[in-house]
Amino acid sequence: MKKITLKVNGKKTKHELDPEEPLLYVLREEFKLSGAKYGCGLHQCGACMVLVDDQAEPTCMNSCEYFEGKDIETIEHLSQNNKLHAVQKAFFEAQAAQCGYCLNGMLISAVALLRNIPQPNRLQIKDALQQVICRCGTHVRFIRAVENAIAQKE
């Protein structure tokens, strides 16, 4: 066990943790944040994504120690003052979620994309979202939702 300092959703906290414990488990158990989901456990499905220094990163395999000193933001932090984030609103309006299991990864990936490339083209949107597996086949609606979020910002 080791004292690990993590900055999650703007707050720095110290926890006595196994430094090899995956961040996903720490978020769910220590922080009681359940937005990131366990999917494949192999960094392949995207269900466990969080924003790390404004980049979408999986959390199911990387140790919590790896994330020390980084700014971690979860899906729970996207909405502020009871107001949905623009991307969340666009996904809702486009009815872009079906079963919802991949939704965390899709939203996190879309937000990361728009923070790094404010006006991405369709190919860049597809590339950003392809790191998340959706078994329901709603990728077309996800792409449309991201395009709608961009249009709302203009």
Automatic annotation (TrEMBL):
What are the top taxonomic ranks of the organism?
Bacteria, Pseudomonadati, Bacteroidota, Cytophagia, Cytophagales
For this protein, the record's InterPro entries field holds: 2Fe-2S-bd, 2Fe-2S-bd_dom_sf, 2Fe-2S_ferredoxin-like_sf, 2Fe-2S_ferredoxin-type, Beta-grasp_dom_sf, Diverse_Oxidoreductases
Its recorded name reads (2Fe-2S)-binding protein
Among Gene3D superfamilies, the record links this protein to: 3.10.20.30, [2Fe-2S]-binding domain
Species of the source: Belliella kenyensis
In this protein, which residues make up the domain named 2Fe-2S ferredoxin-type?
Answer: 2-78
Q: Which PANTHER family match?
A: BLR6046 PROTEIN, OXIDOREDUCTASE WITH IRON-SULFUR SUBUNIT
Q: Which Pfam families match?
A: Fer2 (PF00111), Fer2_2 (PF01799)
Instruction: Write the record's keywords in alphabetical order, separated by commas.
Output: 2Fe-2S, Iron, Iron-sulfur, Metal-binding
